[in-house]
Design brief:
7-stranded mixed β-sheet, 6-stranded mixed β-sheet, alpha+beta, single chain
């Protein structure tokens, strides 16, 4: 696609995108994408509101990079779920959710009070729920002040209810909870902490994994072990490839550097890392991603890949858990 067309697609929605970024976005699309698919991708990159679950080419689903589909002023709308990013602290993302049919509002992992309360009030909303994935202060730091101000209900992990400030509803693996017209399903995903949960909205294919799964990474195992973390990640791998992954931190660029160090010949990873670098130069977030992107490029979901095993000198015949532990150890020491 000609550069001037790329710029026309990007600039109306995002005035700060440089020509080099527009050119990079176009150049890194697979060659077999049609003009329709390219326009579709670029409109998502420019921050337009509505989201399509996938595009198709020659009968094959093509999951395209979704990282720039939203900005602080322009949310993603997936059917009846609207998702807004609220940057907090140095690299946290709090996710503001609105279920459009009922008007119910929730935030996921509010690390601090002021930016979250401001975002809610600026939009003329009332906070109904806080959804916590785990107890760490940078995910629960705003709980009590937000609950005091908005009289909202706090939903969190049953396995860690003693460490979730103000918790009202405690949920465990396999349980469901209703957020307006949407069902939220819960996975117990220990490893980062012993009581971590992941939140899954199957009707709109949206996943909120907290610090279990990151774009190109996974959480450090502060309270768990490799077996627990791999079991947790294995619960997420079978979800639909088009699943939107709304993780909690902007770690993607550093994760990409590590991933390339142990999987340097992965072409999908090379292209993704280059795009990530382009985005971060512009101060553009890289999240959400898709599960398909993670399955293709995230080394923590690919410990059985022969190249990764070879580069990490994982012994022949070692278990998947042992290989995963080697990936995690390498990242910890990177």
């Amino acid at each position: 696609m000609p550069l001037n067309v790329v710029q026309r697609l990007l600039l109306p929605a995002c005035k700060t995108v440089r020509p080099s970024t527009a050119k990079g976005l176009a150049a890194r699309l697979p060659a077999h994408h049609s003009s329709f698919q390219t326009n579709h991708f670029l409109s998502r990159a420019a921050g337009t509101k509505h989201w399509s679950r996938h595009t198709k080419s020659a009968g094959t689903s093509e999951i395209v990079c979704m990282a720039t589909a939203m900005s602080e002023s322009n949310p993603i709308t997936v059917e009846n779920l609207e998702v807004q990013r609220i940057p907090c602290l140095s690299d946290n993302y709090v996710w503001l959710l609105q279920e459009k049919k009922s008007g119910k509002v929730a935030v996921v992992d509010p690390s601090e009070f002021k930016p979250v309360a401001s975002a809610i009030q600026e939009r003329g909303l009332k906070l109904d729920y806080i959804l916590n994935t785990h107890h760490h202060w940078d995910h629960t730091g705003g709980n009590e002040e937000l609950k005091s101000k908005f009289h909202c209900t706090i939903v969190g992990p049953k396995a860690d209810k003693g460490r979730i400030p103000g918790i009202d509803i405690a949920l465990a693996d396999g349980e469901s909870w209703q957020f307006g017209d949407l069902e939220m399903q819960v996975f117990d995903t220990p490893g980062h902490t012993r009581g971590h949960i992941t939140l899954w909205f199957p009707q709109v294919q949206a996943l909120f994994p907290g610090d279990t799964l990151f774009a190109l990474g996974c959480g450090r195992m502060f309270e768990g072990n490799a077996q627990q973390m791999w079991t947790s990640l294995s619960k997420l791998k079978p979800l639909p490839p088009a699943t939107k992954v709304f993780c909690a931190h902007e770690y993607t660029q550093s994760n990409a550097k590590f991933a390339l160090s142990i999987d340097p010949d992965n072409q999908a990873l090379q292209k993704r890392a280059a795009l990530i670098n382009d985005l971060r130069k512009q101060g553009i977030p890289t999240i959400p991603s898709t599960l398909q992107e993670e399955l293709d490029t995230n080394p923590f979901l690919r410990p059985d890949d022969p190249a990764i095993r070879k580069n990490l000198r994982v012994p022949e015949g070692a278990s998947t858990v042992d290989a995963f532990a080697a990936v995690r150890k390498a990242k910890d020491n990177f």
